[in-house]
Amino acid sequence: VALALGDHEGARRQFETAIEISQRTGRRDDEADHLSSLADVMLAGGEYEAADEALSRALDLDIQTGNRLGEAGVRHSMGLLMLVRGDYVAAVRELQDALGIYQSMGRVADAVSAQADLARARAATGDVRRGTLELREAGRLAESGQLGPAIRADLALASGDFALLLNEYDEAQTEYREAERLYRGQTDYAGIAASLHGQAYVHLYQTRFADAVAALDQALRSQQSLGDPRAAALTRLLLADVHLEAGETEESRLLAADASDVLTALGDPVGQAAAMAVIAQIEMKASEYESADSLYRKALALVAGTDSPGIAWRLHSGRAGTLAARGQ
Question: How many CB atoms within 10 Å of residue 265?
Fold first, then answer.
């Protein structure tokens, strides 16, 4: 309840107390479950190192006790952690393992959720074709079971993301609005914010800047109330893109710089590089080509150790523009 209300400290205290009790009573299964839940709190609060440590401890306990379902849940969470840290290859590996366990145990709802996340991870590595196949399989699996609105909302959100990748804007908007409707029915504020974020992308690509800003302002309020620093930073970054496209460079610079500070503190190299790309575009508009080139080079160095072709393409393309502007 505390986590759903955005009370991360309250949730943390409850789970830490539960872990201590489980350790004293020798209930290792319960300890692993509580560690995994504590990791979810840490992940939501941007404490990625601490979340990684808690999940590693939980995984060890689940393997020792032979708790396959617990192991799948931990690997699923590890995959999501790797996604936000930009380690997409590791995310694919963990999510595949989680999916395999869910499928072997007949856990349809869990399998659908893991496969939708796996689809996103594959797309992040640039393998949109396999990501699309994963998402289709998740859809077929969903049709085979009576799934609740929460899973159907997650699937609609993922479908919107893939439609957006394929420039199918009407389809993307339809899926995002369906996701929002389902999330609102569950009072899932994080999900509502994510669906609004997706809708804002569609508005941006269709140059409806005022609609994009309105959707993002709503999303940002929800993310701030939930205490989710990464999601809020990414929303500010998209707001920066919108203001830049609308010609409002100073507002864009402030938003991008703020997002960059948060994403740097969180250890998100892909997000940080994306923020630097926005600032570099602003420098280009001001004819500050050397400054823009420096930002693009630093951003490329940040993502050099990641498998993230989407942002890498944007950075290489941007830097090519700086070189052309300087006659090089």
Answer: 12
